Amino acid sequence: MKLYDSFRSALQSLVVNKLRSALTMLGVIIGVAAVIAMVSVGNGASASVQATILNLGSNLVTVQPQFGNDQGLKGAGTQAQNLTLDDMRSIQNQLGASIAATEAEQGTGRWQVTAAGQNWNTQVTGVTEDYPTVRDWKLDSGEFFTTSDLNLNAQVAILGTTTAQNLFGDGDAVGQTIQLRQVFGGDRSGGRARILNFRVVGVLTTKGSTFGFSRDDQILVPLTTAQHVLTGRLNIVNAIVIKATSSDTMDATTSDVNNILLQRHNISDPASADFTVTNQNDTLAALSSVTGTFTLLLGAIGGISLLVGGIGIMNIMLVSVNERTREIGIRKAVGARRGDILTQFLIEAVALTGLGGVLGILLGWAITEVVHRIPQAANLPLLITSGTVIIAVGVSVVIGIVFGLYPAMRAARLHPIEALRYE
Amino acid sequence: MNESVVQLRGIAKTYHIGRDITVNALRGVDLDVRAGEFLAIMGPSGSGKSTLMNVLGCLDVADAGTYVLAGENVGKLSDDQLAAIRNKHVGFVFQTFNLLSRLNAIENVELPLIYGGDRRARRQRALAALEQVGLGDRIHHRPSELSGGQQQRVAIARALLNDPSMILADEPTGNLDSRSSAEILAIFQRLNETGKTVVMVTHEPDVAAHCKRIVRMRDGIVARDELVPHPRRAEDEIAAGIGAAE
Question: What is the pTM of this model?
Fold first, then answer.
């Protein structure tokens, strides 16, 4: 029997029972659509998280002070040391060209900011001159402050776009003066306010938000200015961030940084280090394993509906074989072999699931399009990869074969005389 | 004498119904059918004629004895080999027509060629077969749009398609009125005159009287085997306006 004839008779019988075929297919359609939609949401979430991490700057190695020990006696022999600007400078000098750039940061908390009669409250952070390089963050206008600004504890500031917008509207912020105010002692009315004038030297480009926090609403000042003028916490930094030359050199950079700091802090046992070095690759790997599990879970939920659809196929094929017992008898009487009957019913099942698979992909795609229009998910890139599509269609065809095989075998095994006698 | 199409020797068949009951449907049947014969197999219910028909049509295999069909020993063939033999050597005509209701006339006729034989010019050959039974103008009708007699003629066209060694008809007029029965018998007689071998199972003496030879079964053996001296001519009866079987 030619495959063409098998296909023709399979499709004919599907067309004859239009409603039944459509309802049976619906199970597979929903299953495949669920897999496609769920996996694409999962992939999208995963890509979104990665993009967010990389938005902080790529190939970053971050050093932070190690806070608190479990046992009070640990490290008793050595004076607890903090990370300092000198640590950063020494990393910068020793690693030189083997890293792309490095910078140190100190947070100073939130400040009340006024300029041109406008009032705003935002985060002020002290950073060093290579911040734009490390964070892959360009300036929209103006210039970033330099080492000489750091040496002079210059009162200059870089504004985020949101901050600039709120203080100066659409006007040019560069060259303007802002005032940072902090209220001391008790409530506002009785307190004494400190007012500091800063000159705006640049405005950052728009970066968006990371995990819900806007990165465009902040003010950057020279680290030394933050230490001497704003906080008084001299020679202390909250983080040193090193940008490796590439993703491949990150591990080497991580261990270099570790060694330099261990030596500078006079610590022989790495386990008792008073700082932690975090490799961005590790963070990405941890997060992608989380999102991968998430995607797998979503896919499994879709897979279960696909399985239910497959059982529906098997059910309806058994009914179909039963109904058409006489037809099978006739076909056998005129010379159909077992394989011919098997092929015919198998193709019917596979046609149901295959067509259901294709329609399911379209439905899944439609669902992701709809999800895309939900405002909360607008930033979520929904990825229907060719891999997802191939797997979905492949799985639905396999389901057709698996769940169609038993009914088809029952049909093929029917004895012609009994089949012909069947009423 | 012509070559032998069917040669049965000592054919026996036993059915088991439930655990204890065994039915000896055939108990040693010897039968020869030669090419060009028009043979009726008669017998009351339970005489074994249906079982004999199944064995002749290779739908079932005998427990004992040998069956040579068109020179091939079909006694020990597998299901698939039997299917191929049916496709090539046997053209079935059933009492209930057994057409596929969702196929039209010509698609029904083409059916045997889907499973074997010469695939070339399938449509033309099916058309020729339908014209042979006088249905050249009804090729796109579905079985439900045809009368019983017309459906049976489609079934005959289907039986003819692979040019089988033998046409095996099981009560072909059982569901038809006398006029249609006469027409069907006329077709069989015409086919027989062109050299086709026809074996017909019937319990109606009036129908059997159109055959050239009658084999009577009783209790699983051939009880009588006789030639019909002057077979009735269905065409004459149609011309005279009389049905073949009242």
Answer: 0.72
Q: Residue ranges of the domains in chain B?
A: 35-50+78-239
Closest CA to A125 of A113, A138, A108, A104: A108
CA–centroid distance for B75 within its chain: 20
Q: What pLDDT shows up at residue A377?
A: 65
Q: Answer whether B48 touches A (CB < 8 Å).
A: no
Whether the CB of B79 is below 8 Å from some CB of chain A: the reply is yes
What distance in Å separates the CA atoms of residue A88 and residue A335, rounded to the nearest whole number? Answer: 87
- CB B112 to CB A420 under 8 A? no
Closest residue to A1, CB basis, from B88, B92, B114: B114
Chain B residues closer than 8 Å to A2 by CB: 114, 119
Does B165 touch chain A if contact means CB atoms closer than 8 Å?
no
Parallel, antiparallel or unpaired: strands A275-279 and A118-127? unpaired
Chain A nearest-CA distance from B96, in A, is: 10
Tell me if ipTM is over 0.90: yes
Per-residue pLDDT tens digits for B166-225: 999 999 999 999 999 999 999 999 999 999 999 999 989 999 999 999 999 999 999 999
Q: Is A60 on the interface with B (CB under 8 A)?
A: no
Determine the distance from the C-alpha atom of residue A84 to the mean position of all C-alpha atoms in its chain, rounded to a whole number. Answer: 33
- Per-residue pLDDT tens over the stretch B2-47: 688 999 999 999 988 888 888 888 999 999 999 999 999 999 888 8
Domain positions in chain A are 3-52+286-421, 67-273
Domain B35-50+78-239's class?
alpha beta
